[in-house]
């Protein structure tokens, strides 16, 4: 029988700021909705003040509001959860089996995806930290922070107190890491062994944290999952000031009174921001929410230099085989002959390109049917390869690379899509029905084991995987996670340039619906 305990006396931890009461279930202490900071709109976060008594930590904290609610779709592929929102969203969650400060367990600090615009610490079902804590003996932390216009609207033209408003979403994460440094030993974690890991936008935030001087020393390993994001794709075309002036115009606030934007109710603020973005788009000016280099955040390491501190941090970087790749309808792919597969590949890439890609694909993916060459993505992978090669050349710490290449028995065969690897790395395949396919438990065991071993020691090798060595300046060694796992050397060097040459580039949808009564938004893609 699984035990549940939430009493007046247990489980309670005494942190430097005050006491927190969570609950014990099946051997794992759960602490939800811990407030790690407070912040005024557009301004830097501040640590919470001490409190008297015992605060409840049995409910998740608020998510950051999104500007456009997405239309739920593809829930079989990526199951989601929804929760109330507030711009005051600086909350985190902790799972641990032992609150003894002497336990010194590795800490895994999860940063959710959704670009810099959406998502939350609980928004995917597989983000739950219970199994990692119980089965893998780590302390798991998941965190909410400001997003979109709440976290990345550049108000610096309107007052010195807003000089870093364009990066306050990242500043929230830095403050959360300070909370971990100062508090995690109370939950059995080791503040000197913290691994930050994130997927998609969360992976992007991991790379950015490596370039923020104030974050130095707050984490000790980095895992970037499908998160080396082309910075030029997320750059805005309009100037910060013209966007803010358009928002003010929509709210009938004069420029001299821009400070009033701090107090506009959230629904009206979101309406004004979306209307301004639509106006910019009609002028051919794209608006995106993203960190911007300044005195606080040095640069994208592919646009400038890696920070000296990040070059000393063991790093793991990976992608999945199809990501956002367009899936073409070829019927039941499992029934296609090799000749039919070759025909479809050549129809997509052309006779010349198809022939070259087939040859290169067979070398890179010898255990994968040729038809999946049509699904290869070119959004994350090119910059991921550049990131790995550059960091492996310059870093004193090891750099590991992986590729999740599983083909799922779904609609006649579907190559791994964006987010499909997360349940395996989180030890949460049991929660996600589509993961329950032949051999899934062993694949999950080695994938979770690799992540946990990396978090514990900086070395991802685990029983059941072939020897996995770090990348070097000359060799990119990629662990291919699949029904049969294997290490491939320089697997992208021949194939990727061909796919980039012969396949139309991936295009993100930046538009906002014209119809204000539309039920709304795009399908979840993170």
Task: Provide a compact summary of the structure.
With 526 residues, the chain is α/β, with parallel strands linked by helices.
The chain-level mean pLDDT equals 94
Low-confidence stretches: 510-526
Counted by DSSP, the helix tally is: 12
Gyration radius, in Å: 23 Å
* Biggest sheet details: 12 strands, mixed
Strand order of the largest sheet: 1-4-5-9-11-10-12-13-14-15-18-19
Structural class: alpha/beta
- The amount of helix comes to 25-40%
- Principal-axes geometry comes out as globular
How much strand content do the residues show?
Answer: 15-25%
How many strands appear in the DSSP assignment?
19
Separation, N- and C-terminal Cα atoms: 36 Å
Descriptive labels:
twelve-stranded mixed β-sheet, about 25% helix, three-stranded mixed β-sheet, about 525 residues
Describe the structure.
The protein has helices spanning 130-136, 148-152, 168-183, 201-209, 240-250, 266-282, 338-349, 351-364, 381-394, 422-425, 440-457, 492-502, and strands at residues 4-5, 12-14, 19-21, 23-25, 28-35, 37-38, 46-47, 54-56, 91-96, 105-111, 139-143, 189-199, 221-225, 315-320, 399-404, 407-408, 414-415, 477-481, 486-489. By secondary structure, it is α/β, with parallel strands linked by helices. The strands form four sheets. It has a twelve-stranded mixed sheet, sandwiched between helices.
């Amino acid at each position: 029988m699984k035990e549940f305990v939430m009493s007046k006396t247990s489980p309670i931890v005494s942190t430097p700021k005050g006491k927190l009461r969570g609950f014990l279930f099946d051997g794992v202490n759960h602490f939800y909705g811990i407030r790690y900071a407070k912040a005024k709109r557009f301004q830097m976060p501040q640590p919470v003040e001490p409190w008297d008594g015992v605060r409840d930590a049995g409910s998740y904290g608020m998510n950051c509001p999104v500007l456009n609610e997405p239309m739920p779709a593809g829930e079989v592929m990526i199951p989601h959860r929804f929760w109330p929102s507030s711009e005051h969203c600086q909350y985190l969650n902790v799972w641990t089996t032992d609150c003894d400060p002497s336990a010194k367990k590795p800490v895994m600090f999860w940063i959710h995806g959704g670009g810099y615009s959406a998502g939350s610490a609980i928004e995917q079902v597989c983000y739950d930290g219970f199994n990692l804590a119980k089965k893998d003996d780590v302390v798991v932390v998941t965190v909410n922070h400001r997003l979109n216009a709440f976290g990345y609207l550049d108000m610096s033209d309107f007052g010195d107190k807003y000089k870093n408003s364009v990066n306050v979403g990242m500043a929230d994460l830095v403050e959360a890491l300070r909370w971990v440094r100062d508090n995690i030993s109370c939950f059995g974690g080791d503040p000197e062994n913290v691994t930050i890991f994130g997927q998609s936008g969360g992976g992007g935030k991991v790379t950015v944290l490596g370039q923020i001087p104030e974050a130095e020393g707050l984490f000790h390993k980095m895992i970037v999952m499908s998160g080396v994001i082309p910075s030029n794709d997320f750059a805005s075309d309009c100037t910060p000031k013209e966007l803010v002036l358009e928002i003010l115009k929509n709210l009938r606030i004069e420029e001299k009174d821009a400070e009033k934007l701090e107090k506009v109710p959230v629904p009206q603020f979101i309406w004004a921001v979306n209307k301004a973005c639509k106006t910019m788009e009609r002028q051919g000016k794209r608006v995106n929410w993203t960190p911007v280099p300044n005195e606080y955040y040095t640069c994208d390491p592919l646009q400038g230099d890696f920070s000296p501190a990040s070059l000393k941090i063991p790093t793991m970087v990976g992608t999945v085989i199809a990501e956002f790749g367009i899936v073409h309808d070829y019927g039941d792919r499992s029934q296609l002959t090799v000749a039919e597969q070759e025909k479809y590949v050549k129809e997509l890439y052309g006779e010349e390109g198809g022939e070259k890609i087939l040859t290169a694909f067979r070398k890179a993916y010898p255990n994968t049917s040729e038809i999946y060459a049509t699904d290869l993505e070119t959004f994350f992978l090119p910059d991921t390869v550049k990131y790995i090669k550059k960091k492996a050349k310059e870093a004193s710490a090891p750099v590991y690379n992986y590729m999740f290449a599983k083909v799922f028995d779904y609609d006649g065969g579907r190559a791994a899509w964006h987010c499909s690897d997360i349940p395996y790395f989180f030890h949460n395949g049991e929660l996600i029905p589509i993961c329950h396919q032949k051999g899934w438990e062993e694949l999950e065991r080695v994938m979770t084991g690799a992540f946990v071993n990396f978090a514990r020691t900086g070395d991802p090798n685990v029983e059941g995987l072939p020897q996995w060595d770090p990348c070097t300046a000359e060799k990119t060694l990629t662990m291919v996670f699949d029904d049969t796992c294997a290490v491939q050397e320089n697997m992208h060097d021949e194939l990727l340039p061909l796919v980039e040459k012969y396949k139309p580039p991936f295009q993100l949808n930046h538009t906002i619906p014209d119809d204000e009564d539309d039920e709304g938004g795009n399908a979840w893609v993170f």
